[in-house]
User: What shape does this take?
Amino acid sequence: MQPGCGVGGHCIAVDPWFIVSQNPDLAKLIQQARLVNDYKPLYVVEQIETVLSERTSRKIACLGLSFKPNIDDLRESPALNITRILARAAQNELLVVEPHISALPRELSNLANVQLVTLAQALEQADVVVLLVKHHQFNDVAGACGPHARYMKFC
Assistant: This one.
């Protein structure tokens, strides 16, 4: 099993901080674990930026926005956070594929450089394909990327 791009959802990503805030001296291991997990999306962005620095075109396919595979729940999603950070750079064009939603979430929907597309469109157009959530629809993505695309897997 490969670690994901971070920890999300409404429980595991949030609840440990309640324990840390109530018992900081007794919860040092929990605090350190959450700090490491909270940093993971930034690490993923750093890895993507390294690959993008070698390219002239910055068209990125972000595959998956939910906090875990095969669901539509975006709460505390590290994949959504990664996509949001990448979208802040105006030179990036993001092709978002999330088969479990019909519209981009509000924080991405008003950005001109982000669009919700089909998997086929993303694989055809992207320079970098980033697998963020292991939805079953993405099982064969690595072999389906365009010849010029760089494939990166974070789940």
In short: The two ends are 9 Å apart (CA to CA). The mean pLDDT is 90. The chain is about 40% helix and 15% strand. The first helix runs from residue 15 to 22.
